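Here is one chain, start to finish.
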Amino acid sequence: MIEQELVDSIGANVRATGDPRAEFHGFSLTGTRTDPERYIVVLDDSWPYHQRTKALQNSWSAQKLADYIETRSLNRILVPAALGEAPFGPQRDYLYAEGTYDFIQQAGLAGRRRAAEAGKPIAAVTGSAGKSTFKAMLQAAYQACRPQHQVRTHPRR
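Its structure:
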C-alpha cells in the first residue's frame, strides 16, 4: 500500500508530508525494532493508560526522543497533530494524526479491508512466546494443503 492510499482510506483526521507515492511499511515504537522504513510512533493521550505508562518513551524528555530519532536516522514519524509542524526537523516525513493510537487502529482496519477485497486471508500471531514455532507450523500445514499459495511469515517478505 502506498502512503496516500492509507491516508485516503482513513480520512480527514490525518495529514501526510513527504512523497505520497512512497510505500508504506508499518509502525515501530521506541525500544522495538526501529526499521528506518517504518514510521516511529510518538505516543499521546489517545493511548490506553497501561500501554502509555509502560512505554519506553513515556519517561523521556522531548529532547531524549529527538536524540533517539536523530541517532537512529529515523526519517518517518507518526506524531500527534498537537505537536505542531515538523517537531523533529523539516527534513523528515510526517504523518500527523489527532490521536496516534486511534490512527494505528484505523490503519490496521484499512489494511485488513484492502486484503479482504483482494481475497487475501490474514492470520496474525501475537504474544511473548512461541510465535516463531507457531508460524512455522502454520506455514507447513498451509503449504501442505495449498502448495500453490505463498505464505508470508513477515509483512515485507
